[in-house]
Amino acid sequence: MEVRIGVKQVSREVVIESSQKPEDVQKIVTTALTAGGILELADEKGHRVVVPVDAVGYVEIGVEEAGRVGFG
Q1: Is the alpha carbon torsion for 33, 39, 62, 22 positive or negative?
Q2: Stretches in the chain below the pLDDT threshold 70
Q3: d(CA 68, CA 41)
Q4: N or C: which end of the chain has fewer CB within 10 A?
Q5: Separation of alpha carbons 49 and 36, rounded Å
Q6: Handedness of CA 23, 24, 29, 32 (dihedral sign)
Q7: Measuring CA to CA, how many Å separate 70 from each of 19, 26, 27, 67?
Q8: CA angle 46, 51, 55 (to 5 degrees)
Q9: CA–CA gap between residue 22 and residue 41 (Å, rounded)
Q10: If residue 43 lies in a helix (H) or strand (E), which one and from where to where?
Q11: What would the DSSP string read from start to end of 6-21?
Q12: What is the pLDDT of residue 51?
């Protein structure tokens, strides 16, 4: 599943591929935004992304897509 984090004052998004369920990622994001401090997520390879909560513009949580065949 793809997670996109928009950071204030930065033109590019932070994009990670996560093996967590969308509900789990949403819970982590909501908790971080409510408590303040940092938002920390891990990708499929174990890398961690840490973003200060006050710099988060938005978080887009994608849903896993079935593999596509052909051009598209």
Answers
A1: negative
A2: 63-68, 70, 72
A3: 27
A4: C
A5: 16
A6: positive
A7: 25, 32, 35, 10
A8: 160
A9: 12
A10: none
A11: EETT-SSPEEEE--S-
A12: 94
Q: How far apart are CA 59 and CA 72, in angstroms?
A: 26
How many CB atoms neighbour CB 71 within 10 A? 4
Question: 10: phi > 0 → left, psi -120 to 50 → alpha, else beta; which?
Answer: beta
Tokens of 38: 């940092």
Does residue 16 contact residue 9 with C-beta atoms inside 8 Å? Answer: no
How many other CB atoms are found less than 10 A from the CB of residue 22? 14
Q: Name the residue type at position 51.
A: V
